[in-house]
Write a sequence for this structure.
């Protein structure tokens, strides 16, 4: 399923399809600078601490890299 929207509310990122159905909920961290950094039709990128973590539409971690 394609990602149409991702929005952060508090310490969670909610991922939605084009119909507005929730595909997944992903923890967004709780440190300054943590949270949603962007999304594409197939991935969501969230900064958690010093890492940029990339997730698929189902909320599965598919990769991470240093944010610095």
């Amino acid at each position: 399923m394609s990602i149409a929207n991702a929005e952060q509310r508090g310490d969670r990122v909610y991922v939605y399809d084009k119909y507005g159905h929730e595909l997944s909920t992903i923890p967004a961290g709780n440190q300054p600078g943590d949270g949603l950094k962007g999304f594409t039709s197939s991935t969501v990128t969230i900064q958690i601490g010093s890492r940029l973590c990339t997730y698929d539409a189902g909320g599965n971690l598919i990769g991470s890299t240093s944010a610095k």
Observations:
- The beta strands are 5-9, 12-16, 22-27, 35-39, 44-48, 51-55, 61-66.
- The mean pLDDT is 96.
- The chain has one domain: 5-66.
